[in-house]
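**Polypeptide and fold**
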Amino acid sequence: MATIDKMRILEIVQSLHNGGRTTRFTNTVEALRAKGCYVLPLSLAHPSHWVDIDGLEVKERIEGFDWRLIIAIRRLIKSKRINIVHAHCELTQLYSGLACIGLKTAVVGTFHRSDLQRYKPSLLHRMIKQLLQRFVVVSKDRLTLLTDNLNYPQARCQVIHGGTPIAKKPEAAEVISARKSCQINEEQLALLSVGHLGKIKGHQDTLTALASCVEQFPNLHLYIAGDGKPDEKMQLETQVASLKLEDHVTFLGQINNVPLWLTACDIVIQPSIEEAFGIVFIEAGALAKPVIATNVGGIKEIILNDKTGLLVPPSAPKALSQALKQLLISPSQRMQMGDLAYNRINKHFSLDCMAEKYITAFKQTMR
């Protein structure tokens, strides 16, 4: 079995823009390097300006089937003596698998997609099944989709949950400092949502729930961190205006200081309609914040209902409102849930834990 010092990993991703995939890719590169692995990160598109990964290579993919890209990846594997390729999402897995035909280089694929349409039978999935040696999914929920819907071989599939950096719990002074940096006053009850502005993230339900709470809690304010298409933002802004929430909602746009905002807020609220995993939920727990979310996808594998947060059905703003009011009236419950969340994330969802599982999977695949 290969040792870490002999493991030379190509981490390859389709793009590095908004979303949990970018965070997971960045975290995976950093965590494997911290373990002493050689890691070469590669993106098939130029990343967003805020993405910062040392040594990142870019081989831009053109529209349609790009044969040049297969050759470029193959040359990179040979020149850097790569012996394991870790490909994130389907197109990247296809190109990596084709590039490694005839080489003694194993390919492991990680499936991140929240969109359920991505788990329907297709020629692409049939090819990936033939080309790759191991298949990783980000949650048990997605494992079922991969094996039952797409008939991937169960013996070569496994779950590796995402990981996040773990530090000590923020002290009161650090929270106060973070709130000042984010310009959140002491009296404000700050809610934070982190996710793109598409409907799948459920911001529309958060706004409806917020409207039912502001009369009882006039100091309540929702901060939405994330970007989206112009029409997606316009729809949410129109809803804010129709609900007369202009003084209670701030759109932050894409931010690169999520930990600061998580430290500053009182509650994280993200009622996703569907979610493969949900990096923000482990990030929130790592900073001892209670979470209100939906019992879909991988979220229910992170949050323990009534212990580390509250789970409600998707597209259910009334239930969301009730959960929100439950936490708003009880600072002690918020604190207790935050403490339990911190302990759970520290034990099960650290970067170190994720890296160890990937290294084990890579070693087994390279045998």
